[in-house]
User: Fold this.
Amino acid sequence: MPRRVLFVLVVSLLNLLTWLGTLLSRLAVYVLPFIVSWLAVLGLFYAFDLPLGPGAGIGQAP
Assistant:
């Protein structure tokens, strides 16, 4: 009986890891467009000399 419980626990853990791997592999496709889009936003802030937040400028100080 304890072996059966251990077997069920191991199989359920492997099933969880399989699901996690599937999720990560599906989300990996979106990493590059996400980085490119945020770099574009940062470039717009730099181009128009906008502050990134209160007291946090971007670029060179005058």
In short: The chain has a mean pLDDT of 82. Helices lie at 2-27, 31-47.
